[in-house]
Automatic annotation (TrEMBL):
Pfam families: Formyl_trans_N. Residues 157-169 have a biased composition (Basic residues). Residues 145-156 have a biased composition (Low complexity). This is methionyl-tRNA formyltransferase. The lineage of its organism: Bacteria, Bacillati, Actinomycetota, Actinomycetes, Micrococcales. Residues 2-140 form the Formyl transferase N-terminal domain. It comes from Homoserinibacter gongjuensis. Residues 145-169 are annotated as: Disordered. CDD domains: FMT_core_Met-tRNA-FMT_N. It is an enzyme of class 2 (transferase).
């Protein structure tokens, strides 16, 4: 792992103490370089310089645009907390609960310029309990989705993204 990208520190609590994201804390504890940005365009040069083979996104909440989208040799994969294409975009777990869905899940898919529209490599299905909250369901999906992400390269023949062209630098 070359680096972890997460949101910038934000004020938290009644005293509005500037606080790093849990992702930043975990990455720092693991000794990984942390890149903090609310917009990827502000750290574009830093991301391109990583010369990564694959980018992995989990709950970032922003679109990845060119040239960052094409920078990793094998593109980007995303762990999305829904059974695509059912709930594309923001708040998929909350939408599933509001709609009364009997099940939801996590999907690992290839990022493309369109929102949540790339090929799906792996999915995990989860039954939604009668009294389950969005917070509980997201916590559960983050654990089961981790396994989904790790295994995505072996679960589907489509899960071997073809190398993308490198842009001249």
């Amino acid at each position: 792992m070359l680096a972890v990208v997460t949101r910038e520190d934000a004020p938290l609590g009644r005293k509005r103490v500037l606080t790093a994201t849990p992702v930043a804390d975990a990455a720092s504890q693991a000794g990984l370089p942390v890149i903090k940005a609310n917009r990827l365009s502000t750290v574009e040069d830093e991301l391109l310089a990583l010369d990564a083979d694959l980018g992995v996104v989990v709950a970032y909440g922003g679109l990845i645009r060119e040239p960052i989208l094409s920078a990793p040799r094998h593109g980007w994969i995303n762990l999305h907390f829904s059974l695509l294409p059912r709930w594309r975009g923001a708040a998929p777990v909350q939408h599933a609960l509001i709609a009364g869905d009997a099940e939801t899940g996590a999907a690992v898919f290839q990022l493309v310029p369109e929102l949540d529209a790339g090929p799906v490599f792996a999915t995990e299905r989860v039954t939604i309990g009668r009294v389950q909250t969005a917070g509980h369901l997201l916590e559960s999906l983050s654990v089961s989705g981790r396994g989904c992400s790790r295994g995505s390269s072996t679960r589907s023949p489509r899960a071997r993204p073809s190398p993308r062209r490198r842009r001249a630098r």
